[in-house]
User: What shape does this take?
Amino acid sequence: MATFLWLAERENIDVKSYKSQAVGTAQMTEGALRFASVNIKIKVGVSTEKARLKVEKLIREIDDWCLVSQSIKSIVKIEPEVFIENGNVGSNTS
Assistant: This one.
């Protein structure tokens, strides 16, 4: 979800932590192996309620910006968890 991190930086959102995990399901379609679905779980830590609300808005709009989502024909489902972090944890990307 590099797209999310790019959008968050563009919107000046202070992301304290970030972790994502993607799982895809493939199937044979018209003689070729293709993704049937992609499920992305993301966890985003921010420092304020205002930032949490901005992140949730970005996540709702991410498909419009994501190169992968725009390039494949399968369903891309995003399961977000956005939370307020206490302290200065730093950034964790996966």
